[in-house]
Amino acid sequence: MLAAGLAASAVVYDALVHNVPGMAANRADAVRTALLVVGGSGALAGLYVAYRKQRTDEANHLRDQDKLFTERYTQAVTQLGSAGSAAIRLGGVYALARIADDSERDRPTCLRVLCAYLRMPYDPADGEAAEREVRTTAQSVLAERLRPEHPGFWSEADVDLRGACLIDMQLFGAVVRTFQAQGAKFIGDTWFNEATFAEDAWFNEATFSGDASFRKAVFVQGAWFNAATFSGDAWFAAAAFKGDTGFGGSIFAKRAGFGEAAFGGDAFFNEVAFEADAGFGKATFAKDAWFGKATFSGDTWLQMVAFTGDVGFEDVRFSRYADFFATTFAGDVDFGGTAFSRDHAPSWPAGFAEPPGIIWQVAASRPAAP
User: Fold this and answer.
1) What pTM does this model have?
2) Domain spans, the chain
3) Which of 13, 55, 192, 343 has its Cβ near the most Cβ atoms within 10 Å?
């Protein structure tokens, strides 16, 4: 290395003496200049070599990381797909969670695998207790990492649980981008309190066997619950529906609460069956609201509701009391063919004339006691 440096200095020196005016008379300056040129070039060469080595080390490190991830991921998926012991599958769930916590880049992949596992066919009536534990653990891993306070938070998550069987699902406080649960079966109580759906949320044809709570949930875009079935109490109190909302054809077997809910887009409650009491007190509808052919079998509370757009109550059936006290209608209102019970006359807002075209029904007589 020293010999090469000296040889290079000699070449530079010779070039300076024979090509730069004045250098031949001042050979000491020529020597110093030659040494500086060669020394600087050597430093640059050293920096380049160090840079190339660093890039090579980084590339090797990434390859090692990819290899390690592939090995860990393959092992975790193999465990999760084991047809043998439920304990092995449980280990696969925790292994995927650790991979996601360690690698932000690989979180979407782990999320998709866990969702795919929960979409696999499962019947709680026939399933063993151990498999139930695996599935509820997978749900917990999912729910914990969809909350912003978790250190391994899965931001901008796209959750696909179409057709999944979910047990006592607790996604309160979760933040997701899209959420698909079309045809999902929610067994037991379900909690989405204060959850945020940044884009569309689909619950079409989903079934909720226990209570379902979406209190203070935020739906930034569309919220779709068409043909969903709520067998227990359903609570949407103070929920914010910022886009269009659809509950068309849904069934509420017990109490349905939409008190103080805010509907920013069009709201569709066409052909909904409210089989028990339904509450919309202090709800706000910024655009149109449609309740055509809905049935209200219990008491209905629509007091102090603000309807800004058009409202359609055509062919609706109110079997019991309907309270419209202090409700405001800023747009057109259609009560054509709406039926009220003579035994439970509705309460209208002050100054609101009874709408034309309504039908008065006589309540069915109760059978005599034996």
Assistant:
1) 0.81
2) 1-80
3) 192
